[in-house]
Amino acid sequence: MHPFMKICKPETFFSLLCLALGLTWIFFSSWMLSQFGLSPSHPNQIDYYTDAGFVVIVSLIIFIGIRFYRTRLSHSEFHYKTLFNTSPLPMWIFDIATSRFLLVNKAMIDKYGYSKKELLNMSPVDIRPSEEVERFLADMALKKRGIQDVGIWTHKKKNGELFTVQVRTNILNYRGKECYLVIADDISDLVKKETEIERLSLVAKHTVNGIIITGKDRTIEWVNDAFIKMTGYSFNEVAGRSPIELLHGEETDKEAEKQMNHIIASNENYSGEILNYRKNGSKMWVQTTVSPIEINGKTEKHVAIFIDITDRKQHEAMIWQQNERLKDIAFASSHLIRAPLANILGLTDLLNEEIQPDHEIIAHLKSSAKKLDDVVRDLVIQTTNSIQKQ
Description:
The protein is an alpha+beta fold. About 55% of the residues lie in helices and about 20% in strands. The two termini are about 95 Å apart. The mean pLDDT is about 80.
């Protein structure tokens, strides 16, 4: 290609070329004819030669221009046809007047399950569920009025499977007909993920348990309303801060904190009970579960769920105190009650050694004391076992 054509449009180049050659011929035609030995005997013959030469030159330029544009058009057509056929996205062209497919690419054939022959005997209505036909016809009416948009539609495969697509439409002239070029991008997975995220967000927002999400640097990126209510902090107060720095305090078990940090740093799931502190300084026991969130195989975030178990911990502490008191009572009862019994048993042994003792009374006294001792022992054992079970 001529260097000049690289900095201007082809049509500009050929126009300037015609102008330059025309002016050259006008001013230098007589001289050029004389160089070829064309010296007409009649003065008018020079005009014939110049006119004929001008026509030849212009015709040659027009011929070259047409060949050039045809070559460019052929290359362009081949280029766009290749893009159309090799596009990974389903594409088709359909006639606005007849709503019939005129051209479909391989991606559409593979995606929708129809053969090329079947598709060329169908219309865009045939790849939609019945409930979307009316909407499609209304959309076509808007497009005929020049209103274009990018739409989300439900399409149907040959086997009846439905999927969601994002459709882009452009008007073009194809084989002398006004048509639409349509590109369809399957976004079913994206829609499912967005729906799942919306549901999870809704659950997370309204759950009674506190939830926080931390980023790579282990600082807070998001918290739900329950966490704010549970701790007394606002979102602005916790954003960008470390949960440990924010929630742990003087009486938080440092060994438990160290173990939690180690497990989280290893990108493993953590679950445990730990003492936290609210904004007002009050203590709050929580059951904490921390899980890594992987994106493309790499841990990018962590999600932590906090369950307030303060009431349970207080109840357990109260039960432990009660058990300790029961143990003390059992111990005291064992010594205070069994001591006199031991004395009775000892006296009966002494009486048994006396001369002419009343053996029947002594035996009865000893038996009663033994039974009382067994009852007290059983009472102490049952109380101890009951405390241990609690």
